[in-house]
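call fold(seq) -> tokens
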Amino acid sequence: MEYPSLTQALKQAAKDFPNRECVSFWGRGAESGRQITYKDFYAQALSVADWLVKEAGLNKGDRVAVCLDNRPEWGEVYFGIQFAGGIAVPMDIQAEFPEISYMLKDSHCRILFASAKLPWLGQAGKDPEVPEKIIIIGSEEPKGEKESPFSRLAGRQPEPDSLPNAAPDDLASIIYTSGTTGAPKGVMLTHRNFSANVNSIKKLKLLSGRDRILSVLPLHHSYPFTVTLLTPLFTGARIVYLESLRAEELLKVLQREKITVFVAVPQLLSFLLRRIEEKINSKIGPARWLLDLAIKGGWKLQEKTGWEINRRMLSSLHSQFGPELRFFVSGGARLDPEIERVYFRLGFKVIEGYGLTETAPVATFNPLEKPKIGSAGKPLPDVELKIGEKKADGEGEILIRGPNLMQGYYQREKETAETLAEGWLRTGDSGHFDAGGYLFIKGRIKETIVLANGKNITPDEVETHYLQSKFIKEIGVLPDDLNHYLIALLVPDMDELRKSGQGNVQNIIKWQMDYYSQQLPAYRTVKEYVLSNQELPRTRLGKLQRFKLPQLFKESKQGRQDMPDIEEERLSALEQQVVQVLKQTRGRKK
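ret:
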């Protein structure tokens, strides 16, 4: 099957929907409420491309870095790079400068588009790996000699035919993996890879031109890039960007923009669920009893009939998320089935998918009409999945084949050959299909803990079990130095501990760990743990960076101090407010 290049697809969208609103941006500054049509979005992308070719001297195949927060300019810059024949290298705006410098050096970027918010811009001008040209977005007052404002690129009106033609097999992006196991690798993805993935998603008919998509996940990652930028653009939908992730602003935009699809990651869904539960728990007496009864009864009827009863019975709760929200999408990491089940019981629909950066990225999606809780769904149209060599329990490595597969890892032939074999991508994930063709993910094969006695343990499952305790906010499980038993780094939920009215953190956590350990086989229980008051290391999409846990465990154990008793904490009222704001801004479970 033939797939268009990304530039051809955008050109067609601008032709089909010229005056339709394409993107809007909501923030606290003067530009809040800005709305851009498809025609103007396309024109700005061409303007960027014209500057890159004529002013910056960009040649076909040159790499250009994009380090921006989610805003309309992100897409305009990305497509400008494509129209200029370049290769975009998206980067995490929250990455530390050494990581940025590594990616700039590894990909040989010539130009950098950067947010004015970046704290390392002053440092960047002195680093030899930083390109000679830096275009600043969000400020008209660049501070370094290499920097120029984005306004310099606006208003140019080139003829599309004067720019290089991007072919479907040209590289569109080099996307660096999130680094859950070590140094990030550059994944090479072509125009065809992305177009094929968008085409497969469109066949599911999840979106239409009437939809409004809230884009809050960082666009440097392939999941939000494909699902919240490319797919809506090529469907004629509208994309809404939000500067702040504070809960109040989030709910306000959901209502004001009448968002229909909210794309999230499990940690964001967990955060939102806590807000919902707080509202439910605020009810007292008969009102709470009747609400619980309605939720349970409505869910049982819905399971039998398929009618969305609780969505109607809990309409006041649903109205907080806007009048037209159809469903949540979850990806980027495995969603706890219990969290998913609670959403469904409350009348919300959560559609989980699965994929990797290497698959551009979506490989499976739960059917909108018949999602299965705990499953990653069924393979997309035109994408094949199979289970490799199976173990006795039917589990095996998930293999993927299709037009969305990457070309390989940039300048890493050995790793490419190990991952791509006979047209199939070895995902490194273990899973199985049920009788209905739904995929269930077991976990990362490399993260499986093999104890000295031969027992295999999936750390995700053990962590999910202990996280049933409301007093445990995060837990990272790993083996001890001799692989004899499990140990863990644990972050208590201080908010819940305060509410409990009990004082000694150590005693409460010990009781909780003992209680939940009794429900597990001995070899799967955590024998030793240390408490931490800092969040565990994660990627921007919430995946736990397990390779960092051993060192963090040792540091916490060696320099460990007892967690303070709740009544002994000395946070001022102002400090407590700051902590709460930071939690809301992160927008995820710590």
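The first strand starts at residue 21 and ends at 26.
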